[in-house]
Amino acid sequence: MSNQRYRVENLQQFCANVFVSLGLPSGDADVAANSLIRSELEGAGSHGISRLAIYSKRLREGRIASTPKMSMETFGSVIKVDGGNGLGQVVAYHTLQAAMPLAKKYGLAGAFIKNSNHFGTAAYFCQIACQEKMVLIAMTNSPPGIPPWGGKRAYFGTNPIAFGFPVRQEPPVIVDMSSSVVARGKIILAAKLGQSIPFGWAIDEEGRETTDPSAALRGAVLPLGGAKGYALAMAIEVVCGVLSGAAFGPHVNNLYNDQDPAANVGHFFLVLDIEKWMNLDDYFLRMDQFLQEVKETPIAKDFEEILYPGERRYRTYLQNKTSGIDLSPEIQQELEQLGAGCGVPWPASVR
Amino acid sequence: MSNQRYRVENLQQFCANVFVSLGLPSGDADVAANSLIRSELEGAGSHGISRLAIYSKRLREGRIASTPKMSMETFGSVIKVDGGNGLGQVVAYHTLQAAMPLAKKYGLAGAFIKNSNHFGTAAYFCQIACQEKMVLIAMTNSPPGIPPWGGKRAYFGTNPIAFGFPVRQEPPVIVDMSSSVVARGKIILAAKLGQSIPFGWAIDEEGRETTDPSAALRGAVLPLGGAKGYALAMAIEVVCGVLSGAAFGPHVNNLYNDQDPAANVGHFFLVLDIEKWMNLDDYFLRMDQFLQEVKETPIAKDFEEILYPGERRYRTYLQNKTSGIDLSPEIQQELEQLGAGCGVPWPASVR
Question: What architecture is the B68-180+223-296 domain classified under in CATH?
Fold first, then answer.
């Protein structure tokens, strides 16, 4: 068996149908499917369709709610959200839809979300805000991945922070970075594909650097840039975990552990409605100048071009959108079996 | 001549008197002096009293306004500030004083500040917010220090991001990190003291790694963690420069260049009034648990203790506060001459 290519619409429909078969309303199923497919198209396979199996398992077990009872309370320009243990993508999407009108009213709106789950890439939500000509700053915590500086056991999640800034001509500027050297998703994917990981990414349970992704998943991921990454991971843990009322540190449960109950992941969104304090045309002109100047910086040796954050993923997206999505035999087999269990047929490949 | 120790109050008064002699109202002079002395006490000499000379020079030349005409406009929970080319510490302090009541009203408040200058450490403002039991997230841009990833000329500032979280028992959690491997202030201080810098901090004008701080100041500082630090520096440049209406990239002028006009630095503050959406006692209990758990993480080899961000600087502060401030001969001489030029006597040392 070899890699096969699939039409984007077919995979998207497959994911949505699986979610619907597990009880999600069709709108929520589309949101979750879109997030997975978008990541896949952008080359972020670690947050793509390879996550469908674990989400489905948790939905089937009732450890993630397919029709979560979300609640939102508004205090001035702050929304406090209880995600009702829904799929993170669904909880975050509905929160963003509530936060954007609030930002229109007050210039900015903050949302503290508890009782949620892994929400896929933060970039996905940045893109939605950018389409509405708004800025999004997004953070989330996650199960323990990073140790405190000087510690040998993971405490903090690999806690990403993301920024989305709209531009006149796509792609928007999308910064989406974990506070670890690499996202834990890359290690999970390497473990799944039986690949080794580079030195410098992670330590094993004893605190030794390792190239074995399974040992790394039992150990800890190293923080970005040493003590600074520790500090950043901690700040994000406080904002998303402590301030939202969600779990923090080792109390955030892991999707991949069969014993773990609801994850109680916390997120934070800050939405900025630029137009409230700056003429939008002026903003776009300033961004055009800024990006042009950045890209015109003299090139260093061994580089060909300066890309801004979000440019590479957008190019990959455009390319895959027309050519289709390549899946490894392992992922194909896993998904086909998953579909069979849900009564959702696996689509034919295009080659 | 050797290092000498000075009483904290004497140095604080000296700085304030110098600022008053240069036309600052006494309240503003105290704010600026407090920021310098606090940094000095915390062991952040790069943002301490060694900066007094350049601030004074720029105030005397009128390139920084001693009595800035600041203006503030409020749009919902956003304040748009024109700092009138005042000293950054003064502009940022007055902005924070306006943003905190707005956060009390709306739960959170954002302030975009243009036409300001170097504001010292962001930690200083975090401490003020924490005393009021509020969270501060602060960012600022700065003159070019970091190149885009793949570029060999600095474009972005070394753009710090800071987070201050109040706790029941001091010290508060204060994260204050530049998006470069090191703060540019450390390189400026090394140049001043005639010391070399470690490999890996910076490149010279040709893009080669260097240990010469002067060559580094003509070249560029490397971003934190490679491409991620570039992305973070860019996001901060957009928030502080583009969105505030301030200068961005190489249009931010440098305090240390005699030809440069007003710097037009931009800052961003986000103030969170926790109490608006969470019981403060609950918050403090959660933080106590969080910090205790972090500190109780099993210790890695070669470490003695786990410190949270802000703890080390607080210990140094307490120690220096009683013992006094040690100054090198170079700094003493510079300050004594500076005082003589302003009619402000240099205090006697304590040993």
Answer: 2-Layer Sandwich (3.30)
Q: Which of B134, B71, B155 is nearest to B269 (CA)?
A: B134
A299 CB neighbours in chain B (<8 A) are: 150-152
Q: Could you read off the pLDDT of B8-51 as tens digits, one per residue?
A: 999 999 999 999 999 999 999 999 999 999 999 999 888 899 99
Distance between terminal CA atoms of chain A?
A: 12
Can you say whether the dihedral through the CA atoms of B71, B93, B237, B56 is positive or negative? positive
Q: Which residue of B has its CA nearest to A287?
A: B242
Condensed to tens digits (0 to 9), the pLDDT of residues A240-273 reads 999 999 999 999 999 888 888 899 999 999 999 9
Beta bridge partners of B344: none
Give pLDDT tens digits for A29-56: 999 999 999 999 999 888 899 999 999 9
Q: What residue segments make up the domains of chain B, in order of their start?
A: 1-61+320-351, 68-180+223-296
Nearest to A78 among B76, B107, B243 (CB): B107
The reply to whether residue A150 touches residue B177, judged by beta carbons under 8 angstroms, is no
CB B113 within 8 A of CB B91: yes
Q: Enumerate the residues of chain A whose CB falls inside 8 A of the CB of residue B138.
A: none
Q: Which residues of A touch B303 (CB under 8 A)?
A: 150-151
Size of interface A-B (CB pairs under 8 A): 220
The answer to whether the Cβ–Cβ distance between B177 and A207 falls below 8 Å is: no
The Cα–Cα gap between A139 and A242 comes to 13
List the structure tokens of B287.
């933080």
The alpha carbon of residue B77 is apart from the nearest alpha carbon of chain A, in Å, by: 5
| DSSP H or E stretch at residue A230 | helix A227-237
- What residues of A are in contact with residue B78 (Cβ under 8 Å)? 106-108, 276-277
CA A242 to chain centre: 20
Q: Provide ipTM, 2 decimals.
A: 0.95
Residue with tokens 């240390």: B256
The CA distance from B260 to B253, in Å, is 6
Angle (CA) B239 B241 B243, round 5°? 50
Task: Note the CATH architecture for domain B1-61+320-351.
Answer: Orthogonal Bundle (1.10)
The beta-carbon neighbor of B229 closest among A225, A238, A290 is A225
Instruction: Please judge whether B106 and A286 are an interchain contact, meaning their C-beta atoms are less than 8 angstroms apart.
Output: no
